[in-house]
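Ticket #340: bound-state structure for S-adenosylmethionine.
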Amino acid sequence: MTRLPDPSVRPAGLADQFGRVARDLRVSVTDRCNLRCTYCMPAEGLPWMPKAEMLTDEEMLRLIGLFVRDGVTQVRLTGGEPLLRRSIVELVAGIASLAPRPKIAMTTNGVGLERVAVGLKEAGLDRVNVSLDTIDSDTFTQLTRRDRLADVEAGLRAAADAGLTPVKVNAVAMRGINDESVADVLAWCLERGYELRFIEQMPLDAQHAWHRSDMITADEIRERLSRRWELTPLPAAERGSAPAERFLVDGGPQTVGIIASVSSPFCAACDRTRLTADGQVRNCLFSNTETDLRGPMRAGATDDELLDLMRGEMWRKRRGHGIGEPDFVQPDRPMSAIGG
Ligand code: SAM
Ligand code: SF4
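RESOLUTION: The complex was predicted; output attached.
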């Protein structure tokens, strides 16, 4: 049996009991979205967070600043759809003015990115991941329940033109919907110089309809891509805490990533922590608990008191997400309200 360190000797910083230290903060800036991806949200949407419960920009920046003070070096803005937060450019500028300045990235569905890519770059955004599961317009509409493929394509072009590079594309494959066309998405990305990463579908949909047997595994994706290209795995050392296993495509230099979050979890190397739009810290995507920072902050907590709450949450991080184990319970909070 593994012996755990004594909690009374908890080290400073965002450490947990298994020796991991959080460096990568994911901030969900809104739970709202303009798409309805079937693996994420029901067609009718979700009851959105009331405005009063959402952190203001000032509150968000104060908390992000504390995370940075405690060792976070990369901040990723996500949601919901982060571009739906009206002040998103100002928020990026605020993060860019923190010292030390963290790297700033964003995960977006790309709708509306065309309009704002230059502004985001000028405000300090370093990189962007755009989610795109198919390049077929009908399949896109079926999958996201919105006819917006052209907007996403325009957003991707604008991101590349603005220098938000390398532009990465995230794709989820769903059985019977887009799994037969994963190679077409890769071909499309290779042609345009976008770096594609496939992510296994996880049990984080609001509808709780995920079944492991329906999930397209990383192995299946690799097998499908290997019918068209030779994939050479990059050495594991180049992976670090990054979850994607990367492959050179036909000898490179272009690569494709495959993230086996479910079938081969990367929890042992996880360096992530999360802040939700309503001010909860979460130590894991799959956590069933979270720590409220908004209440104490609005009640006048000091920076040190807030840091103590953040550290306490991270210290409780479990060894792994436990999907597939008998006691696994899908979190109540859906992906769109946690921040993927
Ligand atoms: N709306 C933005 C977007 O779609 O990029 C940001 C939020 S979204 C929740 C972040 C990422 O999570 C997207 O790449 C999306 O494809 C992915 N995602 C959502 N639900 C998922 C699920 N059940 N399993 C795996 N990935 C999921
Ligand atoms: Fe919206 Fe992103 Fe969820 Fe799709 S995956 S519904 S774009 S939050």
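RESOLUTION NOTES: The CA atoms of residues 62 and 303 lie 9 Å apart.
TICKET STATUS: resolved
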